[in-house]
Amino acid sequence: MLTFVCGGVRSGKSSWGEKAAEKLRRADGKLIYLATARQSDAEMKNRILLHQRERQAKCAEWTTIEQSIKLETCADFLRNHDILFLDCLTTWLSNEMFKDFNQPVQPKDIKRRIIAAVAALEGACNHVIIISNDLFHEPIPRDKHVYRYIRVLGELHQYFVHHAKTAVKMEAGRPVVMKGEVLR
Amino acid sequence: MYFITGGAFNGKKRWVLTKYSYDVNDDCKWYHCYTEKNKYIMTLPYSKESTLVIEGIEKSLEEYLKNGHGTAKDFYDRYLLKLLTWEQQDEKRKLIIIGTDMTKGIVPIDKDVRHFRDELGRLYQKLVQMADDTIIVWFGLGQSLS
Question: Which member of A130, A141, B41, B140 has the lowest number of beta carbons within 10 Å of its beta carbon?
């Protein structure tokens, strides 16, 4: 099963999504945090540490997997009853698209690969929660790479919203349920 | 008139094709602002079709503003007013305008882009005011404002 959560920066996507994951947790399954961010600089490192501390403070037993590309490989670690929290699609897509400028990949192939990876993760566990960012409400940069990135991200969002059982738009810490029911 | 808006790549066009399939499959003129020049908008009230879709109105406004210091109001009066009149002249006629919302990001550094974005916000307020209904499309899901 899939839940899709999207919102602006600091809209509380991760904390709401983590709470939702904890509610979904089953006694016989784990809570798995799939972190896609790379520690590219000190600020990014601090951001990652902050997220890790917040999860530890909640005492829920989160297992963290750090994987920036090819997330389908994580399916091997999952069990049927696990809840997977994927944070986030935006960094994952940029990792896949911009990992090597010398070897450009077709946007269509990347899109297909990401959809297949999510399907593999979904098939291997009980519930996948995907977090992503809303980057679609400003003039689109003319840079070819950025344009492609935003287009593929938008297409993926459409696909996941269509496919998800629950789709949530985060607005300043409040979840607006666009599709399905709130997780209780 | 129906105004369909939402962020870029949110599935606005697909929403129109699905929800207004009856109107847009048959007897429809589909006008792409990204591929055609503004002057052709003037010819639209003379087309035979009873449904008229204008896709990418933000691009037309951008083109209009490049030729001087115009405003959204000038643009509306010059290009869109006639289309609304055209729609009202026959009850079979339907006007659908699709526009990307670009008004929620960081204030652009470039002065002209700032002006464009301000006027785009004003244009959309006007369109919402004139529309029979406005739909905000969020990744394929439509929400009516009425």
Answer: A141
| Strand partners for B134 | B3
Confidence of residue A184 (pLDDT cuts 50, 70, 90): low
Residue A125 lies in a domain: yes
The answer to whether residue A148 neighbours chain B at the CB level (below 8 Å) is no
Who contacts A50 (Cβ-Cβ below 8 Å, separation ≥6)? Answer: none
Q: Which residues of B touch A160 (CB under 8 A)?
A: 139
**Residue A94: which of A75, A114, A112 has the closest Cα?**
A114
Residues of the domain holding A49: 2-179
> Per the domain annotation, does A184 fall within a domain?
no
CATH number of residue B100's parent domain: 3.40.50.300
Mode of pairing for the β-strands spanning B133-138 and B94-100: unpaired
pLDDT digit string (tens) for B44-84? 988 899 999 999 999 999 999 996 779 999 999 999 999 99
Chain B contact for A6 (CB, 8 A cutoff): yes
Closest residue to B140, CB basis, from A140, A150, A158: A158
Cα–Cα distance between A38 and B64 in angstroms, integer?
43
Question: Binning pLDDT at 50, 70 and 90, where does residue A179 land?
Answer: very high
> What is the predicted ipTM?
0.83
Q: Which residues of B touch A166 (CB under 8 A)?
A: none
Chain A interface mutation, best of B13, B139, B144, highest count of A Cβ atoms under 10 Å:
B139
Determine contact: A88 vs chain B, CB below 8 A: no
The pLDDT score that the predictor gives to residue A147 is: 92
**Is A178 in contact with B138 (Cβ distance < 8 A)?**
yes
Q: Does B102 touch chain A (CB under 8 A)?
A: yes
CA-to-CA distance for B108 and A133, rounded, in angstroms? Answer: 20
